[in-house]
Amino acid sequence: MSKRILHVVSNVAHYGDGLEPTGLWLSELTHAWHVFAREGWNQQLVSPRGGRSPLEPRSLKWPNLDATGKAWLADDACKALLTDTARPDETDASTFDAIYFTGGHAVMWDFPEDAGLQRLAREIYERGGIVSSVCHGYCGLLNVKLSDGRLMVAGRRLTGFSWTEEVLAGVAAKVPYNAEEEMKRRGALYEKNLLPFTSRVVVDGRLVTGQNPQSAKAAAEKVAALLRQPLPQRSDEYPRARTPGETGT
Prior knowledge:
Layout: E1 4-8, H1 26-38, E2 42-46, H2 67-73, H3 76-81, E3 98-101, H4 107-110, H5 115-126, E4 130-134, E5 157-158, H6 163-169, H7 179-185, E6 189-190, E7 201-204, E8 207-210, H8 216-227
Parallel strand pairs: 1-2, 1-3, 3-4, 4-8, 5-6
Antiparallel strand pairs: 7-8
């Protein structure tokens, strides 16, 4: 049976100063899109406000723009998808098997407090689906609560863009908060590689997270592997995994 994946992208085009541009880190979408397209699965884009999702300029330069990104930019149909994304309130969570939060610094502003995105993640998870993120995409998981009021990330093993990577990227003074520390404050069992900007994927049951842009393909492949398995009808039928963290390439 064909699967359906909901990709979450940002509407934010600038850092908080309103001057320096940011947006979706393109390869974090294109690597995952390629993995799921290879399976023949249906994919859709959603953003907090719907409509256009701007691109992070740095993601369009060498060496960040790879073959999947170049192919996307050369395809008018693909480019059009980022100009007309759906809104959460017009998206039916029951029709999706997985949600995948993409990154780019932009998401730090519009993902965490968006009730519509929180609803989508909660409903997909609680009906037995997969919640996943890559890089800054885990900011979209910060405030997701399950129906019993518990934070989804509390007590869960996960990863995402580290504070060390923020510093090395030269943007630590520009971001609105330290996402790594915010995750820890919410009780998440945060993990990261000792070597920055290397691929790391953490799988905890049906929660799949990748640390940085270098982890996008590996994270998507872990999601795909889970989607090939029969999914439970309710979240309590699928006990959380407590296996060691996994590093993809």
